[in-house]
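Progress report, Aim 2. The chain analyzed during this reporting quarter is listed below.
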Amino acid sequence: CFEQVELFAGQLPDITFSQLLEKFAESCVLDGAFFLCRHDHVKRVAHMLDRVPGLSLEDRYNFCFSPVNTRDPQAMSSLLRFALQYSKNLPVRIAMGVPKESAKNDEDLLNLETKHQVLSMYMWLSQHFSEGTFPYKETA
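Predicted structure tokens for the chain:
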């Protein structure tokens, strides 16, 4: 699918990636049995990443399809931080504390769940970007 988005981007070079995805979705012609999967999720991430300079079209595409819970502000913040570090050619760090004990209440449990989601996202990103850019995948 990236190749199709890339070809489409060649026709609209002066718009943001989130605008590009919106126009791409509008122009898609799908059989009645098909639909664009996770489109709102991808648009939400793309809109957030519009603020990150220095990402290629393919980088933006990969970050947009990462497994992030877009309803979790902490997870979205982590994705933004990862993208900013990546855009500056810095090694992408996890920068997340390890819990010292098990969850004692619902809030602790939600916090642990978010940390797990962020680690899963980091692992996914490490598989989709060049080796060395996500150097802490073994730690994750």
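The helical segments are 2-11, 17-27, 39-49, 57-64, 73-87, 106-128. The chain has six helices and no strands. These observations will guide the mutagenesis work planned for the next reporting period.
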